[in-house]
Automatic annotation (TrEMBL):
Binding site for substrate: H112
Lineage of source species: Bacteria, Bacillati, Bacillota, Bacilli, Bacillales
Keyword vocabulary terms for this entry: NADP, Oxidoreductase
Keyword Lyase listed: no
PANTHER family per the UniProt record, alphabetical: 2,5-DIKETO-D-GLUCONIC ACID REDUCTASE (PTHR43827), NADP-DEPENDENT OXIDOREDUCTASE DOMAIN-CONTAINING PROTEIN (PTHR43827:SF3)
Site (Lowers pKa of active site Tyr) location in chain: K79
GO MF term list: oxidoreductase activity, acting on the CH-OH group of donors, NAD or NADP as acceptor
Protein name: Aldo/keto reductase
Catalytic-site annotation from UniProt: Y54 (proton donor)
Domain annotation NADP-dependent oxidoreductase: ranges: 30-262
InterPro entries attached to this UniProt entry: AKR (IPR020471), AKR5G (IPR044500), Aldo/ket_reductase_CS (IPR018170), NAD(P)_OxRdtase_dom_sf (IPR036812), NADP_OxRdtase_dom (IPR023210)
Family: Belongs to the aldo/keto reductase family.
Amino acid sequence: MVKSLKDTTTLHNGVEMPWFGLGVFKVQEGSEVIDSVKAAIKNGYRSIDTAAVYQNEEGVGQGIRESGVSREELFITSKVWNSDQGYESTLQAYETSLNKLGLDYLDLYLIHWPGKNKFKETWKALEKLYKDGRVRAIGVSNFKVHHLEELLKDAEIKPMVNQVEYHPHLTQKDLLAFCQKEGIQLEAWSPLKQGKLLNDPNLSDIARKYGKSVAQVILRWDLQSKVVTIPKSIKEQRIIENADIFDFELSTEDIARIDGLNKDERVGPDPDDFTNGFTE
């Protein structure tokens, strides 16, 4: 059982990754992102997830520097955007992200979306960064089973993480099972379905039973499903509340009840259709 914000899952290469972190999608560059990163770290978070396309890497880096916590204690993730896919362009994109963040290395670097036809070249670049000791772990984001199968045909190094949209309306059981079989850690983005699940009557019912909020129940369900989770918030009170999930455990029945809410419904794009930024 995951007992604290410091608890980690061990990726297949031995690197430890926190089960819980802060996502900064749509958090504005400047004081908004700096303050949310500092608030999270101050309140015990050690994992921060950003991406080139969020256009807030500089603020994330500043928040990290101002947090007063040593770099080695933190786990920082960024992602290569669609228009930068390809071998050389990915290597360049990595340098750009590092420069913006003001860091010497990343803990995790991900291919943001599979796109159409370049992810194998992009993966070769991630493998090079990994072999050169520039990044501690590499992975993908928004990859379905068929994308992973295609990647694994030629990959020298298996992805350590697959970060996908994952919440009670999109439980992706087949993908979770495939990743677990392959030793790839699944990670949830938009675990609260961008707030759209917070009034769900079934979840409200379960939340009352545990004296917790719906958000806390969903985030606990992630962890008990062995899924890393990175809820986003810019309010310090919410950042603290989201992480207050280590003093209770959902019953097997309640886990099954939440699993049963699946509708295969996305709030983000379908990875098979989303090729934004690619020139065909």
